[in-house]
Known about the structure:
Elements: H1 2-13, H2 17-26, E1 31-32, H3 33-40, H4 44-56, E2 60-65, E3 68-73, H5 78-91, H6 95-106
Amino acid sequence: MLFMLNFATFFAALSDPTRLRLLHLMKDGEICVCFLQGVLKTNQPKISRHLAYLRNAGLVEARQDGKWMHYSLKKLENDLQQILSETLKRVSKEPQVGKDIKRLKEIQCCPARYGFSSPLETDDETVSSRPR
Length: 132
């Protein structure tokens, strides 16, 4: 019965458009909540609620860096990983997700506003690709 509960929770996590957008934004690696807020144009409590749901479902993991939280997809069992990958492939065809990716490239993470190094900067160069 525990397996069925976990399985149901997994699919329930995939049943919400906001959570699907968040998962898609994390598909290429770790991302700061600042970026997620900016891309989805919504408040931090709403983002946090959805991220907590995804964490409880075992889909994402979090890492704290000072005041900032960074989220990434969690390594899943092969069958669940395949379901998630196929789901995210389909989600990537949605017009809103295309807008999300475009907006992601334009957003500045808030640590830079407070004098901390930006995720866009490295020791030797500034990375112009997708922020992390």
